[in-house]
Each structure stands twice: as structure tokens, then as C-alpha cells.
UniProtKB/TrEMBL annotation:
<feature type="domain" description="Reverse transcriptase">
    <location>
        <begin position="1"/>
        <end position="112"/>
    </location>
</feature>
<dbReference type="InterPro" id="IPR000477">
    <property type="entry name" value="RT_dom"/>
</dbReference>
<dbReference type="Pfam" id="PF00078">
    <property type="entry name" value="RVT_1"/>
</dbReference>
<protein>
    <recommendedName>
        <fullName>Reverse transcriptase domain-containing protein</fullName>
    </recommendedName>
</protein>
Length: 308
């Protein structure tokens, strides 16, 4: 048995009320820091936005100083080894900054780089998934296929699906699709040159692109604040009046962002979304995607008809 000790400050770990008490303990931090603040359990993120890189550097240092003072006053210990600064800009040079700038960070399990290329996260996923490919191949020789499918969903699909809505449209997503094809061929004992789309259908497994399509459509349906329908901008009927309006953007980085791409995919399924309840639409969309394995978004947009 552990020795009973009176808790004089902080929150006791392992208690039922621990998470709630911790949130109450740290909840007023954003009131003391001028920067935008994201709190997730004991992970705290400060966001500063500016056009002048020098002023932004000063603001970042001030934010860290204010936060450190608050932590000290409230009995927290700031983990300096895990405190990182990252500058998001398409062309800025961070060599002149006084802050300790890194080129990539791990934020809530997702690796984010300063140019938002998602390359570090794809590298990370490729290593993890390659190990699972080998594991599933070894299991295929000793256990039935239905057990392998269970292991696939638990140890392969669950890894790449986390945060997929963010990086699912990056060019290197094809590298993960190749690894997925290897698993599918191993599951069915197929050759390395065998076409995989029929195998996806037979196994009732979604491609990584299909899962991305499903996730972004459901995300927009659950977050209608992103929707600006075309009929709100004019008072006459048009064929696509119920489509959501997508603003014009100059930068390709913005055009390929998850919000813009999500709206494009949402518009593609606009008639189906309006024809069914949300619950029914989710089911029909998922089963339609099972029947139509896709390797990229162009295949979706080139589809002439969608029959749910």
C-alpha cells in the first residue's frame, strides 16, 4: 500500500476528478496571455500572427515570458525541453530570429512542418506502417483471413486515419496507398502486379483516399459554418444554387488546404446530401465508396454519376 500524504497543491494523478480539477486549475491561463491559446490536457499552444517577422519574434518572446510567470505563480513547472517555437511561412527566413526556432513539431500526435508540406508526418507514418506490413505478412501464414482483417483495422488503418483530414490531400499520400496495396495483396495472397481495386471490393476495405473523402464530407456536414450557399449571393435560380460557394484564393497552398478541398468534395455529393437524412447519407456514402475504390481525388471528380 502507498503511504497516505496530504495534497497541498496541484491535482492528484489517477483520481476520478483529476482531469476535471486540472482543467479548472489551468482554465484561466488564456486570460493572462494575449496570444491565441489552445489547451488540450497538459499540452498548451500559443499562436501569434503578424506580417513583420521581427515584431512577431518579440511577441513570441513576450508570450513565453508571460506564460512562464503564470506557470510559476500557479505552481506549474514549464518543461523547457519540450517547449518549441515554429514559424509558419512560405518564404520567411528564421535565421535572424532570437527565439529557438524548429522546422517541425509533433502536435497532438501529428508532425507539422513550417511549410505545411506534411513530409515529416508522411515519413513518420511510412516507418510505422512498414513495420505493420511485415507483421501482417507473417500473420498471414498462421491465422485465418478474418483475424488478419481485424489486425489490419486495429494496427494499420487506425494509424494513418488519425488526422487524415489534414494531410490526406498532400502529394505523398500515394506512398501510404502503396503500403496499403501491399497489405491487401498479402491478405489475398495476390501477386505484386495484380490489380488491387477488385481486392479492395472483395475485402470490403476502403482505400486511404476513400477514407479521406468520407472524413472530409462528414466533417463539413457536421460543421455547416463553413458553408456559404450560392443562392445567398443572388436572387435567381441556377442549377447549382445549393452548392456551397468557394472563395477565390491566389496561393496553391490555400487551394489544397483541407477546408477548400473539403468544400469541393462536399459540392460533388451535394444532391445526395440534400436527398437523405444525415444518418442515411453517411451509410450510403460509406457503402458507395466500398464499391468504388479510388486512388486519387481526380477519379472522384471525373465520375459522371453517383448512384446511392
Amino acid at each position: 500500500w502507498s503511504t497516505e500524504v496530504e495534497v497541498e497543491w496541484g491535482v492528484p494523478q489517477g483520481s476520478v476528478l483529476g482531469p476535471l480539477l486540472f482543467l479548472l486549475y489551468i482554465n484561466d491561463l488564456p486570460l493572462f496571455v494575449k496570444s491565441n491559446t489552445i489547451l488540450y490536457a497538459d499540452d498548451t499552444t500559443f499562436i501569434n500572427i503578424g506580417k513583420d517577422i521581427t515584431n512577431l519574434d518579440i511577441l513570441a518572446n513576450q508570450t513565453l515570458k508571460t506564460a512562464s510567470d503564470w506557470f510559476c505563480t500557479n505552481g506549474f513547472l514549464l518543461n523547457e525541453a519540450k517547449t518549441k517555437n515554429i514559424l509558419f511561412d512560405l518564404k520567411a527566413n528564421s535565421s535572424s530570429l532570437t527565439s529557438n526556432i524548429v522546422t517541425s513539431i509533433k502536435f497532438l500526435g501529428v508532425h507539422i512542418d513550417n511549410h505545411l508540406t506534411w513530409n515529416p508526418h508522411i515519413d513518420y507514418l511510412s516507418v510505422r506502417l512498414s513495420r505493420v506490413v511485415y507483421l501482417l505478412k507473417r500473420l498471414n501464414d498462421v491465422v485465418p483471413q478474418n483475424y488478419i482483417k481485424t489486425a489490419y483495422f486495429s494496427y494499420f488503418q487506425s494509424i494513418f486515419r488519425y488526422g487524415l483530414i489534414l494531410f490526406g490531400n498532400c502529394p505523398r499520400i500515394q506512398e501510404l496507398l502503396i503500403l496499403q496495396k501491399k497489405v491487401i495483396r498479402n491478405l489475398t495472397n495476390s501477386g505484386t502486379r495484380d490489380h488491387c481495386k477488385p481486392l479492395f471490393i472483395d475485402l470490403q476495405i476502403q482505400t486511404i483516399v476513400n477514407l479521406y473523402i468520407y472524413d472530409v464530407v462528414i466533417y463539413i456536414c457536421k460543421n455547416p459554418n463553413y458553408l456559404n450557399f450560392k443562392y445567398t449571393f443572388h436572387d435567381y435560380n441556377t442549377r447549382k444554387k445549393n452548392n456551397t460557394k468557394i472563395d477565390f484564393y491566389r496561393l496553391s497552398k490555400t487551394l489544397n488546404s483541407h477546408i477548400v478541398v473539403s468544400l469541393k468534395v462536399y459540392n460533388f455529393f451535394e444532391s445526395q446530401i440534400n436527398s437523405f437524412s444525415f444518418k442515411m447519407f453517411k451509410q450510403r456514402l460509406y457503402h458507395w465508396l466500398l464499391r468504388h475504390p479510388l486512388y486519387n481525388l481526380d477519379e472522384l471528380f471525373k465520375t459522371n454519376t453517383v448512384n446511392f
